[in-house]
Structures are given as C-alpha cells and as structure tokens.
Design goal:
Distance between the termini: 14 Å
CATH class: Mainly Beta
Number of strands: 10
Low-confidence stretches: none
Strand content: over 45%
Largest sheet: 8 strands, antiparallel
Mean pLDDT: 94
Shape: globular
CATH superfamily: Hcp1-like
Helix content: under 10%
Structural class: mainly beta
CATH architecture: Roll
C-alpha cells in the first residue's frame, strides 16, 4: 500500500500557545527530549548494556517580533502547547510542554529595511501528548 499524500502534515498549520494564548507571530517550533543513557560494561558479556538515565527537554521557537511579551515574561516558567492541525490530515496533534524556561532573552536584533525576527531557545521538564494523530 502506498502513502496517501493527503495524510502528510504541513507545518503551515502549526500553532504555538504560551500559557493558553495563541502566539500568532511564531512560525516555527522545535522541541526534543533526550535520554542520558548510562553505559554498563559487564564481565563475561561482549555487549555494552544500557540503563535509562535522566531526561532532558530542549527546544527553539521563533518568528516575527511584534510585541515585547517575551522580554516582559523574563525568566519565569511557562507552558507551551504545540498544535498541528492540517485540514487534510486525519486528525490533529497537541502536545503540552511543561515548566519551560528560556535560556536567554534577545534584547535587540534588527537591521534597517529587514523584518525583525525573534528566536527563543528553551529547556523544559515534562511533556504530555494531549491529542495524538492515529492511523
């Protein structure tokens, strides 16, 4: 069976919500979770074994600068909800990203004649899949 191309999801339909408020200026979001695996070397075993270690969440969101809301938010914790809802796909996906902390604040980044963009790097402590896309 071949892939039904209409089920592929375009990022054009992605939305970023910070503490429940849609951030219409952000047009990209990436969030990842990495696991710090502990390597185990055991006598009499030719395989390296691994034990699950702590998780680390990090990401970046960006888009156009239209307000000073990220500066006003400062270094306080907040929540992000990522929503992908392509009308041709079979459903939508929402992920709650919890206990978000920015890595730094972009105070200024502009050049005459060009659109001002804003990029926010962050870490987070937990996530929850609210609405999965199912087959």
């Amino acid at each position: 069976m071949s892939l039904d191309a209409s089920r592929t999801i375009l990022g054009s339909y992605g939305q970023v919500f910070i503490d429940g408020e849609w951030q219409t200026n952000f047009n990209r979001l990436e969030a990842n979770v990495e696991m710090d695996k502990k390597e185990l070397l055991l006598s009499g075993d030719s395989w390296k074994r691994f034990k699950k270690g702590p998780l680390k969440g990090s990401g970046t969101m960006g888009g156009f600068k239209v307000t000073s809301s990220m500066l006003q938010r400062g270094f306080g914790k907040f929540e992000i909800i990522s929503k992908l809802a392509d009308p041709e796909s079979q459903g939508f996906e929402r992920i709650r990203i919890k206990n978000v902390l920015v890595d730094g604040l972009q105070l200024a980044n502009w050049k005459a004649g060009e659109m001002v963009e804003e990029e926010v790097k962050f870490t987070f402590e937990e996530f929850e899949l609210l609405d999965p896309i199912v087959a």
